[in-house]
Protein backbone atom coordinates (compact mmCIF):
# COMPACT_ATOMS: atom_id res chain seq x y z
CA UNK A 1 0.00 0.00 0.00
CA UNK A 2 1.34 3.44 -0.83
CA UNK A 3 2.12 5.41 2.30
CA UNK A 4 1.49 8.78 0.68
CA UNK A 5 0.28 10.21 -2.60
CA UNK A 6 2.29 9.16 -5.64
CA UNK A 7 4.41 12.01 -7.02
CA UNK A 8 3.59 13.11 -10.56
CA UNK A 9 6.89 11.75 -11.95
CA UNK A 10 6.27 8.27 -10.49
CA UNK A 11 2.69 8.36 -11.70
CA UNK A 12 3.96 8.99 -15.26
CA UNK A 13 6.13 5.87 -15.02
CA UNK A 14 3.47 3.51 -13.61
CA UNK A 15 1.70 3.03 -16.98
CA UNK A 16 5.06 2.16 -18.54
CA UNK A 17 5.66 -0.54 -15.91
CA UNK A 18 2.13 -1.80 -16.37
CA UNK A 19 2.35 -2.10 -20.18
CA UNK A 20 5.74 -3.78 -20.08
CA UNK A 21 4.70 -6.26 -17.38
CA UNK A 22 1.49 -7.00 -19.28
CA UNK A 23 3.59 -7.84 -22.35
CA UNK A 24 5.94 -10.03 -20.31
CA UNK A 25 3.05 -11.81 -18.63
CA UNK A 26 1.38 -12.50 -21.98
CA UNK A 27 4.71 -13.91 -23.25
CA UNK A 28 4.81 -16.32 -20.32
CA UNK A 29 7.68 -14.62 -18.43
CA UNK A 30 7.43 -15.47 -14.72
CA UNK A 31 10.18 -13.38 -13.09
CA UNK A 32 12.00 -10.22 -14.12
CA UNK A 33 14.83 -8.25 -12.51
CA UNK A 34 14.93 -4.48 -12.08
CA UNK A 35 17.93 -4.52 -14.42
CA UNK A 36 15.89 -6.22 -17.17
CA UNK A 37 13.04 -3.75 -16.66
CA UNK A 38 15.61 -0.93 -16.83
CA UNK A 39 16.94 -2.14 -20.19
CA UNK A 40 13.46 -2.21 -21.68
CA UNK A 41 12.30 1.12 -20.30
CA UNK A 42 15.39 3.29 -20.36
CA UNK A 43 15.11 4.13 -16.64
CA UNK A 44 17.88 3.11 -14.22
CA UNK A 45 17.48 -0.10 -12.21
CA UNK A 46 17.77 1.86 -8.96
CA UNK A 47 15.02 4.25 -10.12
CA UNK A 48 12.77 1.26 -10.78
CA UNK A 49 13.51 -0.36 -7.41
CA UNK A 50 12.82 2.96 -5.69
CA UNK A 51 9.49 3.37 -7.54
CA UNK A 52 8.30 -0.17 -6.84
CA UNK A 53 9.42 -0.09 -3.21
CA UNK A 54 6.82 2.63 -2.68
CA UNK A 55 4.22 -0.09 -3.04
CA UNK A 56 5.80 -2.57 -0.70
CA UNK A 57 8.59 -3.85 -2.97
CA UNK A 58 7.59 -7.19 -4.43
CA UNK A 59 11.12 -8.07 -5.44
CA UNK A 60 13.46 -10.48 -3.70
CA UNK A 61 17.17 -9.73 -3.76
CA UNK A 62 18.68 -11.91 -6.46
CA UNK A 63 15.31 -13.31 -7.61
CA UNK A 64 13.71 -10.28 -9.17
CA UNK A 65 10.00 -9.60 -9.33
CA UNK A 66 7.12 -11.97 -9.87
CA UNK A 67 5.71 -10.62 -13.14
CA UNK A 68 2.05 -11.51 -12.65
CA UNK A 69 1.99 -10.38 -9.03
CA UNK A 70 3.66 -7.04 -9.79
CA UNK A 71 1.43 -6.41 -12.80
CA UNK A 72 -1.66 -7.16 -10.71
CA UNK A 73 -0.51 -4.82 -7.97
CA UNK A 74 0.18 -1.97 -10.42
CA UNK A 75 -3.22 -2.58 -12.03
CA UNK A 76 -4.75 -2.18 -8.58
CA UNK A 77 -2.78 1.03 -7.92
CA UNK A 78 -3.93 2.40 -11.29
CA UNK A 79 -7.53 1.55 -10.42
CA UNK A 80 -7.95 -0.80 -13.39
CA UNK A 81 -10.01 -3.32 -11.46
CA UNK A 82 -12.95 -0.88 -11.56
CA UNK A 83 -15.15 -0.53 -14.63
CA UNK A 84 -15.34 3.10 -15.82
CA UNK A 85 -17.99 4.52 -18.11
CA UNK A 86 -17.18 7.40 -20.44
CA UNK A 87 -18.71 9.77 -22.95
CA UNK A 88 -16.76 11.58 -25.64
CA UNK A 89 -17.55 15.12 -26.79
CA UNK A 90 -16.41 16.20 -30.24
CA UNK A 91 -16.43 13.74 -33.15
CA UNK A 92 -13.80 15.45 -35.31
CA UNK A 93 -10.54 13.79 -36.31
CA UNK A 94 -9.15 14.03 -32.80
CA UNK A 95 -12.33 12.67 -31.21
CA UNK A 96 -12.37 9.73 -33.60
CA UNK A 97 -8.70 8.95 -32.93
CA UNK A 98 -9.24 9.16 -29.17
CA UNK A 99 -12.35 6.98 -29.42
CA UNK A 100 -10.12 4.41 -31.12
CA UNK A 101 -7.72 4.53 -28.16
CA UNK A 102 -10.63 4.03 -25.77
CA UNK A 103 -11.98 1.07 -27.73
CA UNK A 104 -8.49 -0.44 -27.87
CA UNK A 105 -7.73 0.19 -24.21
CA UNK A 106 -10.03 -2.37 -22.64
CA UNK A 107 -8.42 -1.46 -19.33
CA UNK A 108 -11.74 -1.00 -17.62
CA UNK A 109 -13.03 1.89 -19.74
CA UNK A 110 -16.29 1.62 -21.62
CA UNK A 111 -17.34 4.32 -24.09
CA UNK A 112 -21.11 4.76 -23.78
CA UNK A 113 -21.78 7.67 -26.09
CA UNK A 114 -20.23 10.13 -28.56
CA UNK A 115 -21.64 13.63 -28.94
CA UNK A 116 -21.18 16.43 -31.45
CA UNK A 117 -22.98 19.68 -32.15
CA UNK A 118 -22.87 19.15 -35.92
CA UNK A 119 -26.26 17.84 -37.02
CA UNK A 120 -24.78 16.37 -40.19
CA UNK A 121 -22.83 13.89 -38.02
CA UNK A 122 -25.80 12.71 -35.96
CA UNK A 123 -26.39 9.00 -36.46
CA UNK A 124 -23.02 8.29 -38.08
CA UNK A 125 -21.37 5.24 -36.53
CA UNK A 126 -17.90 5.17 -34.94
CA UNK A 127 -17.29 1.46 -34.51
CA UNK A 128 -20.78 0.52 -33.48
CA UNK A 129 -21.60 3.69 -31.54
CA UNK A 130 -23.84 6.28 -33.18
CA UNK A 131 -22.83 9.95 -32.88
CA UNK A 132 -25.53 11.76 -30.90
CA UNK A 133 -26.45 15.42 -31.05
CA UNK A 134 -25.11 17.43 -28.12
CA UNK A 135 -28.66 18.55 -27.25
CA UNK A 136 -29.30 15.06 -25.91
CA UNK A 137 -26.35 15.16 -23.51
CA UNK A 138 -28.24 16.01 -20.31
CA UNK A 139 -30.84 13.31 -20.76
CA UNK A 140 -28.19 10.74 -21.68
CA UNK A 141 -26.09 11.58 -18.61
CA UNK A 142 -29.09 11.40 -16.30
CA UNK A 143 -29.92 7.97 -17.66
CA UNK A 144 -26.45 6.40 -17.97
CA UNK A 145 -24.42 8.34 -15.34
CA UNK A 146 -21.04 8.31 -17.14
CA UNK A 147 -18.11 8.90 -14.80
CA UNK A 148 -15.66 10.23 -17.37
CA UNK A 149 -16.05 12.84 -20.11
CA UNK A 150 -13.47 13.03 -22.88
CA UNK A 151 -13.18 16.58 -24.22
CA UNK A 152 -12.09 16.69 -27.87
CA UNK A 153 -13.40 20.21 -28.24
CA UNK A 154 -12.03 23.71 -28.80
CA UNK A 155 -11.00 25.43 -25.56
CA UNK A 156 -13.95 27.82 -25.36
CA UNK A 157 -16.49 25.06 -26.00
CA UNK A 158 -14.83 22.91 -23.34
CA UNK A 159 -14.94 25.80 -20.87
CA UNK A 160 -18.62 26.39 -21.59
CA UNK A 161 -19.68 22.77 -21.16
CA UNK A 162 -17.63 21.73 -18.10
CA UNK A 163 -20.04 23.19 -15.48
CA UNK A 164 -22.90 21.11 -16.94
CA UNK A 165 -20.76 17.98 -16.95
CA UNK A 166 -19.82 18.48 -13.29
CA UNK A 167 -23.49 19.11 -12.42
CA UNK A 168 -24.47 15.93 -14.28
CA UNK A 169 -22.22 13.83 -12.05
CA UNK A 170 -19.17 13.42 -14.28
CA UNK A 171 -16.20 12.88 -11.96
CA UNK A 172 -13.25 12.91 -14.35
CA UNK A 173 -12.18 14.68 -17.54
CA UNK A 174 -9.76 13.38 -20.14
CA UNK A 175 -9.13 16.77 -21.62
CA UNK A 176 -7.63 17.44 -25.06
CA UNK A 177 -8.79 21.06 -25.22
CA UNK A 178 -6.74 24.19 -24.56
CA UNK A 179 -8.93 24.97 -21.52
CA UNK A 180 -7.60 23.61 -18.22
CA UNK A 181 -10.57 22.73 -15.98
CA UNK A 182 -8.47 21.76 -12.95
CA UNK A 183 -8.39 25.18 -11.28
CA UNK A 184 -12.14 25.84 -11.76
CA UNK A 185 -13.20 22.32 -10.77
CA UNK A 186 -10.84 21.05 -8.06
CA UNK A 187 -13.15 18.14 -7.23
CA UNK A 188 -12.87 16.67 -10.75
CA UNK A 189 -10.04 14.31 -11.66
CA UNK A 190 -8.44 15.95 -14.71
CA UNK A 191 -5.89 14.52 -17.11
CA UNK A 192 -4.83 17.14 -19.64
CA UNK A 193 -3.27 16.10 -22.95
CA UNK A 194 -1.56 19.11 -24.45
CA UNK A 195 -0.34 18.22 -27.93
CA UNK A 196 0.99 21.73 -28.51
CA UNK A 197 3.14 21.48 -25.38
CA UNK A 198 4.46 18.12 -26.50
CA UNK A 199 5.57 19.76 -29.75
CA UNK A 200 7.44 22.46 -27.78
CA UNK A 201 9.13 19.69 -25.79
CA UNK A 202 10.22 18.09 -29.05
CA UNK A 203 11.64 21.44 -30.13
CA UNK A 204 13.65 21.59 -26.90
CA UNK A 205 14.97 18.07 -27.42
CA UNK A 206 15.90 18.84 -31.01
CA UNK A 207 17.74 22.00 -29.95
CA UNK A 208 19.67 20.24 -27.22
CA UNK A 209 20.37 17.10 -29.19
CA UNK A 210 23.88 15.73 -29.01
CA UNK A 211 25.54 16.88 -32.20
CA UNK A 212 26.86 13.53 -33.32
CA UNK A 213 26.83 14.41 -36.98
CA UNK A 214 27.68 17.76 -38.54
CA UNK B 1 22.14 30.01 -19.56
CA UNK B 2 21.30 26.65 -18.01
CA UNK B 3 24.26 25.22 -16.16
CA UNK B 4 23.22 21.62 -16.79
CA UNK B 5 20.62 19.65 -18.68
CA UNK B 6 17.02 20.49 -17.79
CA UNK B 7 15.38 17.69 -15.79
CA UNK B 8 12.37 16.04 -17.40
CA UNK B 9 9.95 17.52 -14.83
CA UNK B 10 11.16 21.08 -15.48
CA UNK B 11 11.08 20.47 -19.22
CA UNK B 12 7.39 19.48 -18.93
CA UNK B 13 6.65 22.82 -17.21
CA UNK B 14 8.53 25.07 -19.66
CA UNK B 15 5.80 24.93 -22.36
CA UNK B 16 3.25 25.89 -19.70
CA UNK B 17 5.29 28.97 -18.78
CA UNK B 18 5.78 29.80 -22.42
CA UNK B 19 2.06 29.60 -23.33
CA UNK B 20 0.98 31.60 -20.29
CA UNK B 21 3.60 34.32 -20.87
CA UNK B 22 2.66 34.47 -24.54
CA UNK B 23 -0.96 35.10 -23.54
CA UNK B 24 0.06 37.76 -21.01
CA UNK B 25 2.33 39.46 -23.53
CA UNK B 26 -0.44 39.52 -26.15
CA UNK B 27 -2.77 41.05 -23.53
CA UNK B 28 -0.25 43.84 -22.95
CA UNK B 29 0.87 42.71 -19.47
CA UNK B 30 4.39 44.02 -18.77
CA UNK B 31 5.33 42.45 -15.44
CA UNK B 32 4.15 39.37 -13.57
CA UNK B 33 5.04 37.93 -10.16
CA UNK B 34 5.80 34.30 -9.43
CA UNK B 35 2.68 34.32 -7.24
CA UNK B 36 0.51 35.42 -10.17
CA UNK B 37 2.08 32.76 -12.40
CA UNK B 38 1.44 30.22 -9.63
CA UNK B 39 -2.26 31.09 -9.46
CA UNK B 40 -2.66 30.61 -13.20
CA UNK B 41 -0.67 27.42 -13.47
CA UNK B 42 -1.43 25.58 -10.24
CA UNK B 43 2.28 25.22 -9.36
CA UNK B 44 3.67 26.81 -6.19
CA UNK B 45 5.38 30.22 -6.45
CA UNK B 46 8.57 28.75 -4.99
CA UNK B 47 8.52 25.97 -7.61
CA UNK B 48 8.25 28.59 -10.33
CA UNK B 49 11.07 30.73 -8.91
CA UNK B 50 13.24 27.63 -8.64
CA UNK B 51 12.53 26.62 -12.25
CA UNK B 52 13.17 30.08 -13.68
CA UNK B 53 16.30 30.63 -11.57
CA UNK B 54 17.84 27.77 -13.53
CA UNK B 55 18.00 30.14 -16.46
CA UNK B 56 19.51 33.08 -14.66
CA UNK B 57 16.40 34.31 -12.81
CA UNK B 58 14.98 37.30 -14.64
CA UNK B 59 12.89 38.41 -11.69
CA UNK B 60 13.64 41.22 -9.30
CA UNK B 61 12.55 40.82 -5.69
CA UNK B 62 9.31 42.76 -5.29
CA UNK B 63 9.06 43.66 -8.99
CA UNK B 64 8.34 40.30 -10.54
CA UNK B 65 9.34 39.22 -14.03
CA UNK B 66 9.45 41.21 -17.23
CA UNK B 67 6.89 39.26 -19.32
CA UNK B 68 8.35 39.86 -22.79
CA UNK B 69 11.92 39.23 -21.67
CA UNK B 70 11.05 36.01 -19.85
CA UNK B 71 8.91 34.75 -22.72
CA UNK B 72 11.71 35.46 -25.17
CA UNK B 73 14.22 33.63 -23.01
CA UNK B 74 11.98 30.57 -22.66
CA UNK B 75 11.38 30.61 -26.42
CA UNK B 76 15.16 30.55 -26.84
CA UNK B 77 15.54 27.67 -24.36
CA UNK B 78 12.81 25.74 -26.21
CA UNK B 79 14.61 26.35 -29.50
CA UNK B 80 11.66 28.19 -31.05
CA UNK B 81 13.85 30.74 -32.81
CA UNK B 82 14.86 28.01 -35.31
CA UNK B 83 12.61 27.01 -38.20
CA UNK B 84 11.89 23.26 -38.23
CA UNK B 85 10.66 21.27 -41.18
CA UNK B 86 8.49 18.21 -40.68
CA UNK B 87 6.79 15.37 -42.50
CA UNK B 88 3.84 13.42 -41.15
CA UNK B 89 3.34 9.70 -41.73
CA UNK B 90 -0.16 8.28 -41.47
CA UNK B 91 -3.16 10.31 -42.63
CA UNK B 92 -5.82 8.61 -40.51
CA UNK B 93 -7.91 10.43 -37.91
CA UNK B 94 -4.95 10.81 -35.57
CA UNK B 95 -2.65 12.05 -38.34
CA UNK B 96 -5.21 14.61 -39.45
CA UNK B 97 -5.71 15.85 -35.88
CA UNK B 98 -1.97 16.10 -35.31
CA UNK B 99 -1.50 17.90 -38.64
CA UNK B 100 -4.02 20.43 -37.35
CA UNK B 101 -1.92 20.95 -34.22
CA UNK B 102 1.17 21.47 -36.39
CA UNK B 103 -0.61 23.98 -38.61
CA UNK B 104 -1.93 25.81 -35.55
CA UNK B 105 1.40 25.77 -33.73
CA UNK B 106 3.30 28.26 -35.86
CA UNK B 107 6.07 28.00 -33.29
CA UNK B 108 8.70 27.45 -35.90
CA UNK B 109 7.37 24.16 -37.29
CA UNK B 110 6.52 23.82 -40.95
CA UNK B 111 4.76 20.73 -42.26
CA UNK B 112 6.20 19.95 -45.70
CA UNK B 113 4.49 16.70 -46.57
CA UNK B 114 1.94 14.11 -45.46
CA UNK B 115 2.34 10.45 -46.41
CA UNK B 116 0.11 7.42 -46.30
CA UNK B 117 0.28 3.93 -47.76
CA UNK B 118 -3.39 3.93 -48.79
CA UNK B 119 -3.55 4.72 -52.48
CA UNK B 120 -7.16 5.91 -52.16
CA UNK B 121 -5.91 8.84 -50.06
CA UNK B 122 -3.19 9.97 -52.46
CA UNK B 123 -3.88 13.49 -53.68
CA UNK B 124 -6.49 14.34 -51.01
CA UNK B 125 -5.79 17.71 -49.43
CA UNK B 126 -5.30 18.37 -45.71
CA UNK B 127 -5.46 22.13 -45.53
CA UNK B 128 -3.53 22.84 -48.68
CA UNK B 129 -1.15 19.89 -48.47
CA UNK B 130 -1.78 16.87 -50.70
CA UNK B 131 -1.42 13.40 -49.17
CA UNK B 132 1.43 11.62 -50.92
CA UNK B 133 1.93 7.91 -51.34
CA UNK B 134 4.52 6.46 -48.97
CA UNK B 135 6.50 5.12 -51.96
CA UNK B 136 7.61 8.69 -52.67
CA UNK B 137 9.04 9.21 -49.17
CA UNK B 138 12.73 8.62 -49.96
CA UNK B 139 12.79 10.95 -52.91
CA UNK B 140 10.88 13.64 -51.02
CA UNK B 141 13.27 13.45 -48.05
CA UNK B 142 16.33 13.61 -50.28
CA UNK B 143 14.94 16.74 -51.92
CA UNK B 144 13.46 18.60 -48.91
CA UNK B 145 15.55 17.26 -45.99
CA UNK B 146 12.86 17.37 -43.30
CA UNK B 147 14.28 17.41 -39.77
CA UNK B 148 11.24 15.99 -37.98
CA UNK B 149 9.02 13.00 -38.76
CA UNK B 150 5.65 12.70 -37.05
CA UNK B 151 4.66 9.05 -36.65
CA UNK B 152 0.88 8.56 -36.63
CA UNK B 153 1.26 4.90 -37.49
CA UNK B 154 0.69 1.51 -35.88
CA UNK B 155 3.65 0.39 -33.77
CA UNK B 156 4.93 -2.25 -36.19
CA UNK B 157 4.79 0.12 -39.16
CA UNK B 158 6.61 2.77 -37.13
CA UNK B 159 9.29 0.24 -36.15
CA UNK B 160 9.74 -0.82 -39.76
CA UNK B 161 10.10 2.71 -41.14
CA UNK B 162 12.31 4.36 -38.50
CA UNK B 163 15.66 3.04 -39.84
CA UNK B 164 14.89 4.60 -43.25
CA UNK B 165 13.93 7.89 -41.66
CA UNK B 166 17.18 8.00 -39.69
CA UNK B 167 19.15 7.12 -42.83
CA UNK B 168 17.36 9.90 -44.73
CA UNK B 169 18.60 12.51 -42.25
CA UNK B 170 15.54 12.91 -40.02
CA UNK B 171 16.82 14.04 -36.62
CA UNK B 172 13.68 14.01 -34.47
CA UNK B 173 10.52 11.93 -34.10
CA UNK B 174 7.20 13.10 -32.71
CA UNK B 175 5.96 9.62 -32.06
CA UNK B 176 2.32 8.65 -31.51
CA UNK B 177 2.87 4.95 -32.16
CA UNK B 178 3.20 2.17 -29.59
CA UNK B 179 6.82 1.59 -30.71
CA UNK B 180 9.43 3.51 -28.71
CA UNK B 181 12.33 4.38 -31.04
CA UNK B 182 14.51 5.96 -28.35
CA UNK B 183 16.41 2.82 -27.34
CA UNK B 184 17.13 1.71 -30.93
CA UNK B 185 18.03 5.21 -32.14
CA UNK B 186 19.77 7.09 -29.31
CA UNK B 187 20.96 9.83 -31.67
CA UNK B 188 17.37 10.83 -32.60
CA UNK B 189 15.43 13.32 -30.48
CA UNK B 190 12.23 11.45 -29.59
CA UNK B 191 9.05 12.79 -28.04
CA UNK B 192 6.61 9.97 -27.37
CA UNK B 193 2.91 10.72 -26.96
CA UNK B 194 1.28 7.71 -25.33
CA UNK B 195 -2.46 8.25 -25.26
CA UNK B 196 -3.05 4.84 -23.70
CA UNK B 197 -0.74 5.72 -20.81
CA UNK B 198 -2.53 9.02 -20.33
CA UNK B 199 -5.77 7.07 -19.96
CA UNK B 200 -4.18 4.87 -17.27
CA UNK B 201 -3.07 8.04 -15.47
CA UNK B 202 -6.66 9.28 -15.58
CA UNK B 203 -7.76 5.98 -14.08
CA UNK B 204 -5.27 6.47 -11.24
CA UNK B 205 -6.50 10.02 -10.60
CA UNK B 206 -10.11 8.86 -10.63
CA UNK B 207 -9.32 6.07 -8.14
CA UNK B 208 -7.48 8.39 -5.78
CA UNK B 209 -9.89 11.30 -6.10
CA UNK B 210 -10.91 12.99 -2.90
CA UNK B 211 -14.32 11.58 -2.08
CA UNK B 212 -16.14 14.87 -1.57
CA UNK B 213 -19.51 13.50 -2.52
CA UNK B 214 -20.92 10.11 -1.70
Outline the secondary-structure elements:
The structure is a homodimer of 214-residue chains.
Chain A: H1 8-26, E1 31-32, H2 34-41, H3 45-53, E2 65-66, H4 67-77, E3 84-89, H5 93-105, E4 109-116, E5 125-126, E6 129-133, H6 137-144, E7 148-151, H7 155-167, E8 172-175, E9 189-192, H8 195-207
Parallel strand pairs in A: 3-4, 3-7, 4-6, 7-8, 8-9
Antiparallel strand pairs in A: 1-2, 5-6
Provide structural commentary.
The structure is a homodimer of 214-residue chains. In chain A, helix 2 crosses helix 3 (45-53). The termini of chain A are far apart. Chain A has two domains: 8-78, Winged helix-like DNA-binding domain superfamily/Winged helix DNA-binding domain (Arc Repressor Mutant, subunit A), CATH 1.10.10.10; 84-197, NAD(P)-binding Rossmann-like Domain (Rossmann fold, 3-Layer(aba) Sandwich), CATH 3.40.50.720. In chain A, the strands form two sheets. Chain A has a seven-stranded mixed sheet with strand order 5-6-4-3-7-8-9, with helices on both faces. The radius of gyration of chain A is 20 Å and the shape is globular. The first copy, chain A, is built from eight helices and nine strands. With 214 residues, chain A is α/β, with parallel strands linked by helices. Chains A and B meet through helix 1, helix 5, strand 9 and helix 8 of A and helix 1, helix 5, strand 9 and helix 8 of B.
Amino acid sequence: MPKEQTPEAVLRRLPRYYRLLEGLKNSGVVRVSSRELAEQLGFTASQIRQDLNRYGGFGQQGYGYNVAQLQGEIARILGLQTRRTAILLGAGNLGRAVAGTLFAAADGFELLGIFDRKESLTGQLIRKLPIRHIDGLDEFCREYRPQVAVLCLPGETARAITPSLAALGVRALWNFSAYDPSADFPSLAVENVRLGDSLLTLSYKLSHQKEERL
